[in-house]
Amino acid sequence: MQNRLYILPLIFRSMKLPQLDSFVKFLVLIALGACIPFLLASRLPHEASESEQSNNTIENILPTVPQKATFAGKEYDLRNYDRRERMDRELLAFTYMHSNTIQTLKKANRFFPQIEPILQEEGVPDDFKYLMAIESSLNTTARSPAGAVGLWQIMTQTGRELGLEVNDNVDERYNIEKSTRAACRYLKQAYAKYGDWMLVAASYNAGQGRISTQLSKQKVQEGMDLLLVEETSRYMFRLLAVKELFKNPSKFGFKLRSTDLYPAIPYTTEEVNSPIVDLVSYAQSKGLTYAQLRDANPWLRGYSVPNKTGKKYILRIPTKDGLIYDPAKTRAHYKHWVVD
Questions:
Q1: Is 206 helix (H, G, I), strand (E, B) or coil?
Q2: DSSP secondary structure string for all residues of 61-76
Q3: What is the pTM of this model?
Q4: Among 339, 320, 333, 297, which Cα is nearest to 107's?
């Protein structure tokens, strides 16, 4: 509002007051002075009062911590101060890690439709797609400093134990379907041990040995009540928080349109059970670049597939139309993700 006071000198100069006699100048100054209170009291349409700004700040920036949350069909009470504050921390993190959160929301439109049917087929709760989201931010080529890779962040030895091929040319930890089914095998194995899906999630991060040891030492029933290393302690609340985010992104200030989301890329499949000597030439024969072939099949890790055993591989070949991005054709997997 103080900016409006700068208007007065401009008015004086524009009126060429030196041409007026002293009495007229005096009257003009009185009239302008009488207008000042009205200038200060008025508000332009886009401006808000201090109280309105304060209310908007609270409502639009600070996420509300729910009194309860559910994961895999189980309800968790968040009213205790420790649970509430741990949940608050994760909600704030997702709210203010803007670029990462927005990209995860965009990518979910492409990957959730692929993952959900597999979880259902494998008998794993649908909520575990959120575990995948916090593991990798839905980056198919994600790699942690410890060497965990892919959407599900599977370690080398774990991947091999779960039946995945891992070598310099083929790494099925990056294969969307195979890695998801492998993760499901681990999750179901852990559930047979714990009988609680949140403990299963905690063990996915910390390992079953550590979780079992701490349950015994601390004599508690729920993973949320365990005192664990910070990463694992936060992990369970990140699961609940990301689920809250996906339930209503606009509530957290993310007002996406359907055109903002990443669409599924249509593709055909080709079965290969013989060596591919040169993947660059193979890609070109399919009307693709090597980079596009690798993006569609991130489990390909080199420039060839030796395949000495005659193993059957399924390659995704994006269609010609699928390579052309048309936002107008993009549809939201869930309507509540978008504002249009």
A1: helix
A2: HSPPPPSEEEETTEEE
A3: 0.81
A4: 333
Tokens 């000597």, residue? 277
Which residues does 4 contact at the CB level (< 8 Å), separation at least 6?
39, 40
DSSP bridge pairs for 314: 271
Helices (H), 97-175: 98-122, 128-136, 156-161
Residues 56-105: tens digit of each pLDDT:
443 456 889 999 999 999 999 999 999 999 999 999 999 998 899 999 99
- What would you report as the CA-atom Rg of the chain, rounded to the nearest whole angstrom? 29
- Tokens 């995860």: give the residue: 104
Handedness of CA 113, 114, 119, 120 (dihedral sign): positive
The residues facing 170 across adjacent strands are: 300
Of 2.30.22.10, 1.10.530.10, 3.30.70.370, 3.30.930.20, the CATH number of 68-250 is 1.10.530.10
Contact 202, 228 (CB under 8 A): yes
Q: Are 104 and 133 in contact (CB under 8 A)?
A: yes
